[in-house]
From TrEMBL:
RCC repeats, residue ranges: 36-86, 87-139, 140-191, 263-314, 315-367, 368-421
InterPro entries: Ran_GTPase-activating, RCC1-like_dom, RCC1/BLIP-II, Reg_chr_condens
Disulfide bond found in the keyword field: no
Annotated Gene Ontology cellular component terms: cytoplasm
Protein name: RCC1-like domain-containing protein
A Pfam family reported for this protein in Swiss-Prot or TrEMBL: WD40_RLD
Classification lineage: Eukaryota, Metazoa, Ecdysozoa, Arthropoda, Hexapoda
Organism of provenance: Aromia moschata
Amino acid sequence: MATKRRRQATTEPATKAKRAKFTLENATLPEITTHGVVLVTGAGDVGQLGLGPDILEKKRPALVNLEHEIVDICAGGMHTVCLTSKGKVLTFGCNDEGALGRITEGKEDAEFESGEVELPGKVIQISAGDSHSAALLDNGQVFAWGTFRDSHGNMGMTLKGNERLPFEIVRDLHIIKIASGADHIVFLTNHGEVYTCGCAEQGQLGRTTERGSSRNARSGIGKGQLAKLLQPGPISLKPSLKLHFDNIWSATYGTFCKVANSDDIYVFGLNNYFQLGLKSMAPQYMPKLSKEFSKYKWTLISSGQHHTIALDENGKAYAIGRKEYGRLGLGKDCQDATELQLITSLDDKKIVHVACGSTTSFAVTEEGELYGWGMGTNGQLGTGDEDDCELPTLIKSKQLQDRKVYRASSGGQHTVILAVTNSNNNKGDNV
């Protein structure tokens, strides 16, 4: 029997168009075209002020004499990281666990003075936690050094333990922004994905259950669970949400992620004082929409241990979280803020930058004035004494008279300030 002839198709069969992969050209990184001088205040007993071995404390901002043009600064728990205009990284402070990324053993006073970290390319962003540091290169690579810690002690940064020199912590991904909490790092890829690694005990990784958040979780066999935490992995999201992100910020024990082309903010981590803007005070282990933070358009979110200061697109600063030591800047009689509160004493100023330490807060005005509030015990506010400040207080010092501040970063007990001056890092200045 003759084979039945098939009817020829008169048109090409319809093909289902592939969904284009979401791509971010770039992320909102700290501006690094303006260079200035570095000023420090607070405790310097392990070298975190960079003023040499003879100066262990400052109650007002003091100049760090550096031979480089500095474009960004990060205060870690007990160390400081600086980025130069040529994309080099300088560090000083405690190096017990490798947070400086350079060898200091056998070198007298090496931790008290700045030294360069050897990296294989130009750095465009830096971050620092309690005992670690990280650097983002212009080609999308990320290098990190130091260690993470949890309630059991030192986690290491890899299964080998502490990494005292920079190593490539993320591979096969193009990263466009990084952020460091006390003991975790957050990575934003060029496809709008968020990866995390480090300690997960408070939910700050956004990819473990509460039961699986400890390195000793039952699901872990040997070092398997620890490896899962230390290896950067994507946060857990329902595929049906089809979410992509275009910005990230970290808290001491939490993370904020901004949805691309939206004002929505997803959060995870410690929320015991409502610092993530969630109604439940329980730790949040998986990404959850923060309706409170999604009310505004944010340019910057900075979060300490138990409080958050956020800056909106109109230059207004808001506070939420724990009131102790005056860290909210809402006045003596304020209560813990369960919702975002406008810092009214700054309402007549345009704020261009905010920063949180563990128990401190800072704001920089368009005019280059620096305001600080919160715990002053170690002089980290730079007011000249050790009193707590319950309202934003203008920081005055001889070193700030002819300078405009444009960035600040606060660590555990010290604060680092970046200011513009006509005599950039002039060694003739008095410290």
